[in-house]
Design a protein that fits this description.
Length: 166
């Protein structure tokens, strides 16, 4: 990998020659700066429980992922309270915390679905139907979402979680 000064010089040449607009130059410059912070392991820790998570978020931003792909409101809530849940594309890599997150989301979604179906049917839903709803939601969160998240990692050619400094 070339050094940051050389990359910035090349970007500036593209801006001066008119290939890049001022907005494109500013965006590419901020991405380069974010990548440099990740490589050096010095991403800004503000709001993140660990340096590794701060580095991962900076690296994901530098690849152009949207904020909603990087972290949900739930991630940010947990981070503010010191829980070290990896950002979106990496969350499924850490099976323990991810299983707990899936169980919580499935319980919440299953409870809401149970209440809606109970209201719609006049209370004619059994415990076993409720359990079935919970298991369906758990399967969706635990089996389907990780595949989508891992596809993002492959598509964007992101480093593996254990390769991120921190």
């Amino acid at each position: 990998m070339t050094n940051l000064a050389e990359e910035l010089r090349k970007l500036n040449e593209l801006r001066v020659s008119g290939v890049l607009s001022e907005e494109e130059f500013a965006e590419q410059k901020s991405r380069l700066m974010a990548k440099d912070k990740v490589v050096s392991g010095k991403a800004d820790m503000d709001g993140y429980p660990t340096q590794k998570i701060a580095n991962a978020v900076a690296m994901l931003r530098a690849t152009g992922l949207e904020e909603r792909e990087i972290a949900t409101k739930g991630h940010r809530w947990l981070w503010q309270r010191g829980f070290a849940l990896p950002p979106g594309p990496y969350v499924a890599r850490e099976k323990g915390p991810y299983a707990l997150l899936c169980a919580g989301m499935a319980l919440f979604a299953g409870t809401i679905a149970y209440m809606v179906f109970s209201i719609m049917t006049g209370g004619g839903i059994s415990f076993w139907t409720g359990l079935g709803l919970y298991l369906v939601f758990f399967a969706v969160f635990f089996l389907i979402l990780p595949g989508n998240l891992q596809a993002t990692v492959r598509k964007k050619k992101l480093p593996e979680w254990d390769q991120i400094p921190g």
